[in-house]
Amino acid sequence: MAGVSVDSGGLQSGSVASDEIGSALATEDAAAGSSRDQPSSAGVRTLDAAITSIRRRQSSRVTGDASDMATAAARYRDSDEQAASDLSVTM
Amino acid sequence: MSPAAVASGGLPSRSAIEGWETTHLSAGASRWRQSAAESEDLFARHRQNINAPGGTVWEGDAKDAALDRVTADLVVVRSQSDVLREAAESAEIGATDIEAAQRDALSAITAAEVDGFRVREDLSVADARPTDISTLAARQTAAVEHAEDIRWAAERLMQTDALVGERLAAKAADLEGIRFDGEVDPRDDGTVQLVDNETETPEPEADAGPEESDTEAGQQDAAEAGSDEAPNPKDPHATDPNRSADGTYGPGNSGDGKAAEKAALDERERRTHVPIVREQVRATHPDVNNPETGKPQQRYYDGLEPTGNPDEYIGIEAKTNEDASRPNQERFDDAVSADRPATAVLDGREIKIVDAQTVYPPEGWVPPSAQNSDQPSTSGGGGAESGASGPALPPSLTDPGLPQTEGSAPLSPADTPRFPDWGTDLTPQEMIDSGDPALIVLGQEIRRRMAEQGTVDPSGLA
Fold this sequence. Notes:
Chain A is mostly helical. Chain A has helices spanning 8-26, 39-90.
């Protein structure tokens, strides 16, 4: 295992920043919405719908990562505190 | 194109052509490029958050795993963005193509009006000049050609627009298929639901009276303009002889001529193992003009056989038998060569027709009407004596005193063009007006062939 180096506060901060990125991905600019019945308009609407879908998936991916980072930060912190507690008991 | 702006047969109306838009494509292209860039930027920032969270150092197996994952995700996002940029480019090119097709359609309308014809909302063409018996035949021919030009350009506009829509829908499907590692069920996370291309059926509106009247008048004028081929949902399907243009099957659409064409093309495919494109396109040749009008002769082949070279085809003419010769077609076909090809547009692309060949149904092929004696024969087959007196003909067609349809050309048997093996004493217009589905199809087919050859049937007989 490689050496571990972490700043749980920094990791928590990174988690918050990524969560904001996830929110930004979910709030794409709304399409103007063409109501014309030309076939190409349907194609535009289909592609807009696909973009909405992938942006939602991208957002979900990033917010999932952000949540993992927050969890990791908490576990690092807990582990550190638990280790500190164990050591103080031992000593 | 508003729902009410559709002419009969699915063609756009004149006002729809005039108001055809492409702004949704350019706006979409801009939106998609922006979205692509934004996603890439946001994911790059997210990756940086993992690489150095809050600007601090993070090292260890967990960090390596997280960084590997987000790096792979960034590759996926870039792939998605590439598709978006391709879609944007496709939309912009499509907008250009559509605008060109719109200009062509408007030019066709303008050309008709400059030539003294009136183009109605349903794209029918009527002569706006006083009737002059000495020029009647030439004007009728010109009207047919203008109507055909306009309809062809309108069709091309529709096809071009539809092709752009299909390409964008294909890009949407591509986009949907690019997924992050581990994404499993596409329907669990709000997957894209394809937007259908449903169009509202034009309904009669309270204020549509004049337009309806206009349409009816246009149909009447269509006789004089040769535009009685005005698109009808029950016209034969462009590629399937057993279906109407609206996609429904009907007994009236299974004429022997179409069946013979299909059999001939099938036989050709069986021999060559080369699939034939069975979409009729309008070909022109730089050296072949209509002797009456001086305009480029138009030629419709029944099929196009790919040569193997890009956008290069052999024009295939299907005939029922070797006696069915047509001088204008032969003159056109004789001019076609690899050095001097004919040109046409297929699916929005210009193609070359480097050779022309005639094919026939296989030996022993029997027309459908001869296969089932219970069905009234409309193709004649045996000659003039069998065409006009079948048991299923409506009474009006057996009335020898049936008046000549208004606008038909005067009798002049000496100039009667030769139409192959369809002997009948009925005029094409009488067939179309008969109410009998099979005769309607036959009459329209004869009209179409006449328009194709640029000929007038002065005798009124086919």
